[in-house]
Amino acid sequence: MGAPDRPEPERPERPEPGRREREPYGPDWHGPGSHGPYPHEQPRGSEPLNARSPLLLRAILSGIALVVSVAAAIVFAVAARGDGSAAAAGICAAVAVVAAIDLVVIARRART
């Protein structure tokens, strides 16, 4: 008295949650700039042995910032008339302190 035995319709298999059905560019693709099975290109030449550090450029820029900001702080402090020059002198002094701290950090890193 029941319904005749009918085969159930085939349902397509669903991928696991969090997984795509297929890889968009193939299984060896690791993103833009990938070349083969490694996600990033391997260094060439003697790069690890002779790596160049940006500390010299950073020290030069910090030294320039220190000199310019101290000079500007002095100029603004001397010319302070209550029209915001004192605030400008304070900002320049703060930039000088940051540049001086950066020079100390650079000197410590250059020694190690």
Provide structural commentary.
With 112 residues, the protein is mainly α. It has helices at residues 55-78, 85-111. The model has no long low-confidence stretch (mean pLDDT 78). It is elongated, with a radius of gyration of 32 Å. It contains 2 helices and no strands. It has a domain at 70-111. The protein is 46% helix and 0% strand.
Short key terms for the protein model shown above:
mainly alpha, single chain, elongated, 0% strand
Beta content = under 5%
Mean pLDDT: 78
Number of helices: 2
Instruction: Specify the structural class.
Output: mainly alpha
Q: Detail the poorly predicted runs.
A: none
Beta-strand segment tally: 0
Succession of helices and strands: HH
Cα Rg: 32 Å
Oligomer: single chain
Largest sheet: none
Distance between the termini: 89 Å
Helix content: 40-55%
Shape: elongated
Brief characterization of the structure:
With 112 residues, the protein is mostly helical. It has a domain at 70-111.
List the helices and strands and how they pair.
Blueprint: H1 55-78, H2 85-111
Helix pairs in contact: 1-2
Biased composition (Basic and acidic residues): 1-25
Transmembrane segments: 55-80, 86-107
Protein name: DUF6343 family protein
